[in-house]
Amino acid sequence: MYKVNEIFYSLQGEGRWMGRPAVFVRMSGCNLKCPFCDTDFRGYSEMSADDILSRCLEEGGECRFIVLTGGEPSLQVDEQLISTLHQAGYYLSMETNGTHAIPEGIDWVTCSPKVDFTEGGEPVVKQVDELKLIFDGEHQISDHGIACTFRYLQPCDVGNDSRNYLILNECIKYIKAHPEWQLSVQMHKIVGIR
């Protein structure tokens, strides 16, 4: 059984797949405690792999792109769940903090290390498809030795519009000076979708 916070259908709001329709499977629980985390883990449902598949089909219809997120999905996602979803034709993307090994069979891995924001956040993954760092203008930018195809900086949403504006502008300046990075904004918050 898996502890699932929610399953919903929307558009991917961040990174390489921004704007793509996706079924989000938000796993409950995380090994880190980041100050900007926007997920409430108090409530969850215990679901089997078949239960998760049924909900993904119900929520997303013909969409065959799943984002496994959390919390930290690598704490729960396993061969059984991956196999069940792949057999139904799903492409599996995982958003991880990188502190645990990624199970075999994930099609796309986005790693967002939280080393600078919380204790115990040192990544163990060494190769991913997409590296996405939270930019707050205060911490050093580092790839933490992780090889990747795409590199994104995402301005930290601190819940204060004027501070967010300053962080965004600093992030843009940094990217212009370091063109190996690209900007990732939280499009879902801008357009008002989940």
Describe the structure.
With 194 residues, this protein is α/β, with parallel strands linked by helices. Helices cover 22% and strands 25% of the residues. A 9-stranded mixed beta sheet has the order 3-1-2-4-5-6-7-8-9.
Order of strands across the main sheet: 3-1-2-4-5-6-7-8-9
> In angstroms, what separates the terminal alpha carbons?
26 Å
Helical region count? 4
Radius of gyration: 16 Å
Q: Report strand %.
A: 25-35%
Q: Main attributes?
A:
single chain; 194 residues; alpha/beta; 4 helices; 9 strands; 25% strand
Write a brief structural summary:
This protein has 194 residues and is of the alpha/beta class.
Please give the structural blueprint:
Elements: E1 2-11, E2 21-27, E3 45-47, H1 49-60, E4 65-69, H2 79-87, E5 91-96, E6 108-111, E7 130-135, E8 150-155, H3 161-177, E9 182-183, H4 187-191
